[in-house]
Design brief:
The protein has about 350 residues and is α/β, with parallel strands linked by helices. The chain has 13 helices and 15 strands. Strands 3-2-1-4-5-8-13 form a seven-stranded parallel sheet, sandwiched between helices. A two-stranded antiparallel sheet has the order 6-7. It has a two-stranded parallel sheet with strand order 9-12. α1 crosses α8, α4 runs parallel beside α5 and α7 packs across α9. The radius of gyration is 20 Å and the shape is globular. Bound molecules: NADP nicotinamide-adenine-dinucleotide phosphate. NADP nicotinamide-adenine-dinucleotide phosphate binds next to α1.
Length: about 350
């Protein structure tokens, strides 16, 4: 079946904004569900895109929004739990990863069954594994497993998402899972965060400096999603997405310093100091730079074993070809121009 109408969860974010722009440029109709419509201001301007304010954790709401769609894309994800470092809260108030990566995925799958939509693209992350030490990677890994399970089997039990999955063998959803390494591009939080830190600190103590990443450009990630929509060869598959080259964290921070003209002394921290820095940062109010869970995730290299998946008929961009332009001029105006350019408006 030709995919023409797509519902996206998490479409207002960094990856989502790029993906929605590319889908709109292909003339597809896109419904973006967002908890706050103003979070998706740039997208409202795009033709063929509607932004709907919706509680994506409400099962009935999801069923309503999915009706009449040909595909669902789930990009929702968080890197830190809001309650981390809040020792004053009872444990029942914690567990955002569980709700965001596992329970929501269950609800999406169930709602697709109810609404009669059978194509699902799920965003996961490189390193996702149900047995990982990091709770982020563990919850992403369980989310992946749920999606593949729904791809293999019919959903038998009406309330399976509440009572636990019960499947019968047979035809299920057409699912594709994407597992990118760290994603870079205009508006990213990773390289841009180091650019901001290097502006302020003359010396940068760096936790997990030897951790390895293969940064992949946001436009390439979005294009892989868009290309896979109508490609049956991608059904039932998981794709690791990496850029052409791997770097240590220290090399990446050096590179950001070179590009932005803020060359600083970087002091790599040992294992225990890295752990304590991550732990201390959990108590910083507001958005977190790092947590112990990130530290656990970085203990494993975030690089791909193979090359770029051949099913996608293009080669990923290098960091050096893209990053200088946006790292040097990362202003809201520059971001807006970037969105316009990718939407060809
Ligand atoms: N960025 C990376 O380097 C990277 C690397 C690997 C994998 N990923 C994965 O890629 C996906 C997108 O990442 P991103 O960088 O684009 O993230 P982002 O900019 O933070 O956007 C995340 C989106 O998820 C939605 N969201 C966040 N928390 C939610 C919650 N509790 N309930 C419902 N919706 C929620 C937000 O939608 P509203 O606020 O509009 O509701 C937002 O649009 C995530 O799943 C992430 O784990 C990212």
């Amino acid at each position: 079946m030709k995919i023409e109408r797509i519902c996206i969860l998490g479409g207002s974010g960094f990856v989502g904004t790029q993906l929605v722009s590319q889908l709109a440029a292909r003339g597809l109709r896109v419904r973006v569900l967002s908890r706050r419509r103003e979070m998706a201001r740039e997208l409202i301007l795009l033709p063929t895109v509607e932004v709907v304010e919706a509680d994506v954790h409400d099962q009935q709401e999801l069923i309503r929004q999915f009706r009449g769609m040909d595909a669902v894309i789930n990009l929702v994800g968080i890197l830190h739990e809001r309650t981390i470092g809040r020792v004053d809260l009872p444990s029942a108030r914690r567990g955002d990863f569980q709700n965001t990566h596992i329970e929501l995925t269950r609800k999406v799958i169930h709602a697709m069954g109810e609404a009669g939509v059978d194509r699902l693209l799920q965003m996961s992350a490189l390193g996702a594994d149900p047995n990982a030490r990091s709770a982020y990677q563990r919850s992403k890994g369980i989310g992946e497993a749920l999606v593949h399970e729904a791809g293999r089997h019919h959903i038998e039990h009406e309330n399976w998402y509440l009572n636990g999955p019960k499947f019968i063998h047979g035809y299920g959803l057409n699912v594709t899972v994407f597992r990118p390494s760290v994603i870079f591009g205009r508006g990213d939080s990773f390289l841009s965060m180091f650019a901001s830190l290097l502006k302020v600190f003359p010396i940068l103590p760096l936790a997990s400096a030897g951790a390895r990443f293969a940064p992949v450009h946001v436009e390439d990630v979005a294009r892989a999603f868009a290309d896979s929509l109508d490609t049956p060869a991608t059904y039932g598959q998981s794709y690791d997405l990496c850029g052409p080259q791997a770097y240590t964290l220290q090399e990446l921070v050096h590179y950001v310093g070179d590009v932005t003209g803020k060359r600083r002394s970087i002091v790599p921290l040992g294992k225990w100091m890295s752990y304590f820095q991550a732990w201390a940062m959990e108590f910083k109010p507001g958005s977190k730079l790092m947590t112990r869970d990130n530290y656990y995730a970085m203990a494993t290299d975030n690089v791909c074993a193979g090359g770029w998946p051949t099913v996608f008929d293009f080669q990923p961009a290098t960091l050096e070809a893209v990053a200088p332009e946006y790292l040097r001029a990362d202003t809201p105006r520059a971001r807006y121009e970037g969105y316009r350019e990718s939407a060809r408006r």
